[in-house]
Amino acid sequence: MADKALTKIVLGDRDIPTRWYNIIADLKTPPAPVLHPGTGQPIGPADLAPLFPMELIKQEVSQERWIEIPDQVRDVYRLWRPSPLFRARRLEKALGTPARIYYKYEGVSPAGSHKPNTAIAQAYYNKQEKVARISTETGAGQWGSAIALASQMFGLQCKVYMVKVSYQQKPYRRVMMETWGAQVVASPSPDTQAGKQILEKDPDSTGSLGIAISEAVEDAATRDDTKYSLGSVLNHVLMHQTVIGQEAKKQLEKFDDEADVVIGCAGGGSNFAGLAFPFAADKITGKKKKLRIIAVEPSACPSLTKGVYTYDFGDTVGMTPLVKMHTLGHGFIPAPLHAGGLRYHGMAPLVCKLYDEKVIEAVAVPQLATFQAAIEFARSEGIIPAPESAHAIRVAIDEALRCKKEGKKQAIVFNLSGHGNFDMGAYEAYLAGKLTDYEYPAEKIAEALRGIPQVKA
Ligand SMILES: Cc1ncc(COP(=O)(O)O)c(C=O)c1O
User: Fold this and answer.
1) HSE-CB for 435 with a 13 A CA cutoff
2) Does the Cβ of 265 fall within 6 Å of ligand 1?
3) pLDDT of the chain, 457 residues: tens digit per residue
4) DSSP of 317-336, one letter per residue?
5) How many Å apart are CA 218 and CA 216, to the nearest integer?
6) Would the CB of 420 count as within 6 Å of ligand 1?
7) Contacts for 250-253 with beta carbons within 8 Å, 24 or more apart?
8) Atom 10 (ligand 1) nearest CA
9) Is 307's C-beta closer than 6 angstroms to any atom of ligand 1?
10) How far is CA 416 from the centre of its chain?
């Protein structure tokens, strides 16, 4: 039985995991190959070498179950890891549920989310391979903040192409990145050919994640001293996040409890995978067959629940390799949701594979219900969640209410992937009654799906 008095478990420095967990080793069939956008043939390490350091390319295709975390990476992790696992006693009471609700709080990182777990690792491997500079894009600013921090820790220069609308709306995210020494430009920018082309056609373009990716990739591809860095979707990024789930399992043991339901929000899939994959291992190997694992996405951008499972580009303009994933079409531009980190047309191929094989479930939730859950959480537990993380809270609350109805005493664990302290504009709109739901964009999705490339898999 769960300990009646404990509210949180805080592990010590020595409990930081020493290895990342690679779920590929436990899959029954190998993941679908990544294809060259021109030839349609599987790509090799040489194709990725201009963009990523070789060690990360090796991790991307590794079959090893465990990959050792370098000491220098653990040294930086030590600044905030292990992150606490809380028992949401006050929320349980407010809901009157017999369920036990736990949340793993990743907002304790300096950047305020789970993103530094991979940013630190990526900056380290770049430094090892004598890369001087990193280029990346950022939508809402969370990923840009994480990579700016990581670059600073390893003495790398960093250039962030920030979607222009966020650059204007979230000036403090920009200042945060600049405080850590990064150069931040509004995208589209005059600094790249891609940016110039867009600006020539439309000088007032507010930008998009797709354009920002094109700029950051072009930056890295055209400079010898620079590599590109991506904050989600790729196998190695998901793997770096598994420190979350490994710690959470240990912390649950200290609560003398075991998870019945594991929940995470999913944009590109990295924080969800980070919490869920170490638990999914027990399900795949038959140790915990009844465990339920739920990915939560916005109903305005429902790639898992409404997308097609096929090959598509990772970016909007079609520059990246083709990956097999649940996609709404690379041309799909989601509504301007406040959960900017969940506005992605696709999903990590490994998350999609587990969904296809029914190891995990997926649910889509609308924006207003998500903010209602965020407020309920903030008013009971205190922490103001990131709008992305609030999607996981919505479903955790729904599951707790189901337990109440069914009289079930289950343990629900969710990932609180970040705090919402830079998202006051969104909370202000919600509290003023100005926030709206977005209809499921059936027509826009149908149109974008027609643009998916035909690939013989
Ligand atoms: C706090 C937070 N949670 C979740 C996400 C979604 O990304 P992912 O699905 O890769 O975890 C983001 C992305 O920006 C984020 O900042």
Assistant:
1) 20
2) yes
3) 455 689 999 999 999 999 999 999 999 999 999 999 888 999 999 999 999 999 999 999 999 999 999 999 999 999 999 999 999 999 999 999 999 999 999 999 999 999 999 999 999 999 999 999 999 999 889 999 999 999 999 999 999 999 898 898 889 999 999 999 999 999 999 999 989 998 999 999 888 887 898 899 999 999 999 999 999 999 999 999 999 999 999 999 999 999 999 999 999 999 999 999 999 999 999 999 999 999 999 999 999 999 999 999 988 778 889 999 999 999 888 888 888 889 889 999 999 999 999 999 999 999 999 999 999 999 999 999 999 999 999 999 999 999 999 999 999 999 999 999 999 999 999 999 999 999 888 999 999 999 999 886 5
4) SS-SPEEEEEES-TT-----
5) 5
6) no
7) 250/11, 250/15, 251/9, 251/11, 251/82, 251/84, 251/85, 251/104, 252/85, 252/102, 252/411, 252/413
8) 270
9) no
10) 12
Q: Which of 142, 275, 370 to mutate to test the pocket of ligand 1 (most atoms within 8 A of CB)?
A: 142
Beta pairing class for 261-265 and 292-298: parallel
